Amino acid sequence: MQAQPGAQSAGTAERAACKETPARAMPAYEQIKRYVIRRISEGDWKPGGLIPSEAELVKEFGVARMTVSRALRELTAERVLARVQGSGTFVAPQRYESTVLEIRNIADEIAARGHRHSARVLTLEPSGDPQALEALGLSSGPAFHSCIVHSEEGEPIQYEDRYVNPKVFREYLQQDFTVETPNHYMVRLAPIQRAEFRIYAQKPDAYVRRHLSMEIGEPCLQLWRRTWVGDDVATSVQLWHPASRFHLAGKV
C-alpha cells in the first residue's frame, strides 16, 4: 500500500475533504506538501534522495520560511520525509507499500461479517477542484465528486471522499449510492487494470470526525487510492476509518 505519494502521481491529490459549504483556498503549506508528495510519486525524487532545501522551496513558492518549514515538518511526522541535522531533508524509504492489498467493496466486507451495510450520501456533484483534476489526469473539468459515509449496523466505519473521471463513468452522478456502492458500480462497468495505494495514520478534521462519530483526538486509518481503466485514471479516493473500529488485513 502507498502513503500519499505514489498514488499522488498525476496528483495524489486527494485530501480535498468534502464540504457542505464552498471550499476555501488551500493553505500554502498544504500546497507545498502536495507538491512534494507529487514529485515523489512521479519518481522525480527517489527514496533516500535529498530534496530541495527550505531556502530553495521558499524561493520557488514565494512564501515565508515558516510556511515551508511547517510543510516539511508535517511530512516528516507522516514519514514521507526524513530530516537529518546538518545534512538536509530526504525522501523516506517507502514503508507502507504492498502489491497485495485487494480492492474490496465495503458492503461485501460488512456482509461477510453477517452485518448490515448502509450508506449516507453527503455530496454528489460536478467539481472543478484543481487537485482532483490533476489526480485524474484531466486538463479541464469538471470531475465527478462524491462523499459518502458507510455504516455497519448503523455505526459509521468509513468516510469516502471520491473523485471520478467522467470520461470513464459518464453516468456516475445519476447513481443511487445508498443502493449500490461506487466501488461495486465502477467495477461492474469497467474492471480495474491497476491501482496505487497509500496508507496513513491521521487525525481527521472536524468535518470528517463528526460524520464518523469520533472523539476529538481519536486517530483514523486513512487510505488513499488511485485506479486505472485502460490508460485512463478512473478514480481517486480517500477513505477514512476510525482506528478503533476498523483494521486492514490481507494475505499473500
TrEMBL record:
Organism: Paraburkholderia podalyriae
InterPro entries reported in the protein's UniProt record: Bact_HTH_transcr_reg (IPR050679), Chorismate_lyase_/UTRA_dom_sf (IPR028978), His_ut_repres (IPR010248), Tscrpt_reg_HTH_GntR (IPR000524), UTRA (IPR011663), WH-like_DNA-bd_sf (IPR036388), WH_DNA-bd_sf (IPR036390)
Residue span(s) of domain HTH gntR-type: 26-94
Protein name: Histidine utilization repressor
Composition-biased stretches (Polar residues): 1-11
Region (Disordered): 1-21
Highest taxon above the source species: Bacteria
Keywords: DNA-binding, Transcription, Transcription regulation
